[in-house]
Design a protein that fits this description.
alpha/beta; 5-stranded mixed β-sheet; 31% helix; globular
Length: 194
């Protein structure tokens, strides 16, 4: 499925459900918190699916990382009838032009992906999560951020908006777990189209 296909192209899609697809991750508390946050930010129900294996062929043996776009394509082609799909994994993911990414999304599209792999790793002495709540907060923000891209929300200039670019841990930690005023308006307008 290309990123430019619209939800109208899929007549059997449940228009009110976001499904979290755990990909070789079984952290029930984290997935439950993410589902609750998705329901708070977006006007949809959210459910957590069963744990699945990562798609064959997603691992790049030369890099020792998983190709995020291949995982997204797998999610989009999976036949699920949910309105949006958010894959969550604990493996290290990349795109061909980036050494690593925290997540990726079809823009626009039905599928998004977030990895917990680097969200608990410090990139400088001050970035290490002080406790589980910091790690959880980062995962929730990145999940919301990637789902926002599926609705054609671009990176926001407001450093406190969840849609600001996720370039490092300091920027992720500085974000709030919500859309800014302008991103809320853009989301509302996009939802009128579906």
């Amino acid at each position: 499925m290309s990123g430019s296909q619209r939800i109208q192209d899929f007549p059997n899609v449940n228009r009110r459900v976001v499904e979290i697809v755990p990909l070789e991750i079984a952290d029930k508390d984290l997935l439950s918190a993410l589902a609750s946050e998705i329901t708070r930010v977006f006007p949809f129900q959210c459910r957590v699916g069963t744990v699945e294996r990562l798609p064959a062929g997603a691992l790049d043996p030369h890099r020792g990382q998983y190709h995020a776009t291949r995982i997204l394509e797998h999610l989009a082609a999976s036949g699920r009838n949910s309105f949006r799909l958010l894959g969550v994994t604990a493996v290290d993911i990349f795109t061909p032009v980036m050494r690593y990414v925290f997540g990726e999304a079809m823009f626009p599209g039905r599928a998004a992906l977030v990895s917990t792999y680097r969200l608990g790793i410090a990139t400088s002495r001050d970035d290490r999560p002080r406790d589980r709540s910091v790690f959880t907060s980062r995962v929730l923000k990145e999940g919301i951020h990637e789902l926002g891209h599926t609705f054609e929300l671009t990176h926001c200039d407001d450093p406190t908006c969840v849609m600001t670019a996720s370039l490092d841990m300091m920027r992720i930690d500085a974000k709030k777990m919500q859309l800014c005023y302008y991103c809320k308006i853009m989301l509302r307008d996009k939802l009128k189209e579906v």
